[in-house]
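During the practical work, I selected for study one protein's amino acid sequence and its backbone structure tokens, as given directly below:
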Amino acid sequence: MASHSPSLKDLIGSLDRESYVSLLSKIVGEARHVQNNPPDLIPEEDRVARHVLDALLPLSTSTAGGPLVVSHISYTEGRGNIIVEYPGSCPDKILSFVGCHMDVVTADPAAWDFDPFSLSVDGDKLKGRGTTDCLGHVALVTELMRKLGEARPLLKNTVVAVFIANEENSSVLGIGVDALVKDGLLDKLKHGPLFWIDTADKQPCIGTGGMISWKLRAAGKLFHSGLPHKAINPLELAMEALKVIQSRFYQDFPSHPQEKVYGFATPSTMKPTQWNYPGGGVNQIPAECSISGDVRLTPFYSPTEVTRKLQEYVDDINANIEKLDIRGPASKYVLPDENLRGRLTISFDEAAMTGLACDLNSRGFHVLCKATEEVVGYVKPYSITGSLPLISELQQEGFDVQTSGYGIMDTYHAKNEYCLFSDMCQGFQVFLSIISQLEED
């Protein structure tokens, strides 16, 4: 009777609950110290990195003669990244699990039903800040690499895990994955699919949105509200101008045919989210106000082109402000006798983010879909106009980026965050299936 070698699943087995929960408990216990909201809260990712290293260094080449090659790379004190390699026999065959970030968004303990900064276990539910985004994935991928180090399967592919700093505030550069890419430390990951593990609901996320934050300021003339004809009402100016700007935006950036292919729930949008004015009595027309909001842009449009167009709209309105609709017979945006004109300015507060459209023809996408169908029971890729920082830049650099995750989308950045251990178990099996499929190539 012919014998055959055991499968990777036979060698590795399943996600060990005791080991996973123990590690996650230690990591979530650091969540208070890795909240990322500068300048008030600067995360200390090395507090999480220490637990990852404690789990993996006993199986490393440097300390124990094990198979794992472990590197801890810091660009600023206390805020390191970790690269872990399980070497395969073929130098040009590689796959990677990237994106597990060791910082979290803030949490207000007073608003939660349980302590966000310690792990609570409630049957299948694992509760605490970061369990979904993204400390639960840090623990999951750590467990994968630990199991590979212990079982030592003979693989053609090198399996790489990258744990990163500073994902939750990617406008600060030179700390996390951007610096690793700039220094060429991830170049070899271009030889195979890169799976960005930082989404949710166990399905491939094949499209994300770009984001542009904007602020529209309107300057008018302060005056008593009983004499509106002597004022330039900046609130009316801002409202009417925004109506024109939005109308022109939707004409220039309509629903794109590819959005249906990728299953985006919404097309590109521009909308206000905040309104500010300097204060004063209700019987006083203020001198200025501002409306802030964002553009969420599907990846088939350029953020650079959008910002150029928004500025063009504002310039056109300023040049032709007399033609802007008014609100009532006493409303006006020009006072000729005083040589005064209302004026609009638009600014963009943060660096624009570009959306991602994954390559649906790549081997990485196909193996992720097959693995998901095998383990979860169905595959239904989805797209969102929410933004994931950094990944579009990786794609532009030549990486085959595919994204997935095993937390709960409804708890992303929310209070009472949790994940399910059963979902993480399925994620672990998806990883093993991906590795096994790529071994067959």
The domain at 210-348 is CATH 3.30.70.360 (Alpha-Beta Plaits). The chain has a mean pLDDT of 95. The chain has two domains: 8-207+354-439, 210-348. The radius of gyration is 26 Å.
